[in-house]
# Entry
Amino acid sequence: MSEEFAYSQEKLDEELRKYQETFKKPNILICGQTGAGKSSIVNFIFKDEVAKVSDGEPCTRDITLYKNDLVNIYDSEGYELGREDYYKKMLFDEFLCKDEHKGIDGEESVHLVWYVVNGASKRFTPYDAELCHKIRSEKYKLCIIISQIDNLDETQLDEMVQSVKRQTMDVVGIKCFRTSNKEEAINARDEKGDKYTDWDELIEWSMDQMPEMCKDRFASAMKKGLKEKESQAKKRIIAATAAAATVGASPIPYSDAVILIPIQTGLVLAVLNVYGLKFAGGAAAVAGLLTAIGVKNAGKAIAGNLIKMIPGVGSFVGGVINAAVAAAFTAAIGEATSVFAYKQCEKAINGESDYYVDINDFFNSDFMNLVNQILSSKLNK
Ligand SMILES: Nc1nc2c(ncn2[C@@H]2O[C@H](COP(=O)(O)OP(=O)(O)O)[C@@H](O)[C@H]2O)c(=O)[nH]1
Ligand SMILES: [Mg+2]
# Structure
């Protein structure tokens, strides 16, 4: 990096600190009897194997914490018949009623409870309903998941759903979703053409319940949820665009566009992370590449061609970056990153690739072309 294009390390650190605030770890409690399919649900939704899938053997005792670097799962094995009181005491007195699990911003705050009932049991008991009432009355976000619905015929499934609804209709804000990890059940449709399984709905609802500061990491942790990842990326783009506009409020010469690098680096990191993409080199590598390609290429483009394309630009004179250009340039980098990350993530979901990107390849000429294309369309609006 030449002196001329040196970004401020201090500003970059500040951006990364701000970014960390949006990247808190989500904590989910998943309740359900051994064999209900809890681990299978967790492993269906999340990328890295978080919970071990038992093979009919119990592998959890009371509450077990499974964690990776993106999400914490508290796994509670549910009640055994005859030991309902023990379970209730354990779940509430020893866990949910404790201060460290309440609220939203503690390390151990429980952000969401998934209450799993095995569809194969064909029963949602009054005791299940009582526990659900109590979980909600302790102010936790809660949904009921009817799992393994491939074990039910249509009538049985309908009865099960109705039974859950009937017993929980007075519980405010509770939802019920149906799941199965069997391909046939996931792809099956009823005569109206609706799916039987609610995986997408479960993911969407869960994302909505998460506090804002946990949404990025929740999106990142998910195997699926491309839509959720994309919409989180959009939020980061909007925030960075606003920050860049503030920087550009006192116009700067294009050669000083490097002043935007910390913001743009924070943005690129956030977007790659939201899609769950890993890369080597960290912030310094991204900042270095953005400096090289961003300032030199886009800076020139802004100073040269683009200016000519903007008609009647009182706001943009002689290669100066003002608020509008700083914002558009930053948004273009964020949007291009999101487009490329989306494609990579889609390939990874389909097993055609993995979640790793070589950022030297990532910021290639196609990327810069897309940035310039987005940039000129924004500035020519
Ligand atoms: N048919 C069917 N079996 C499932 C489904 N989900 C899990 N299983 C099986 O049920 C058993 C228990 O699943 P697991 O996820 O370990 O349950 P956990 O004890 O609640 O964590 C395992 O043998 C799974 O393969 C499903 O959707 N359909
Ligand atoms: Mg398990």
In short: Residues 54-60, 307-317 have pLDDT under 50 and may be disordered.
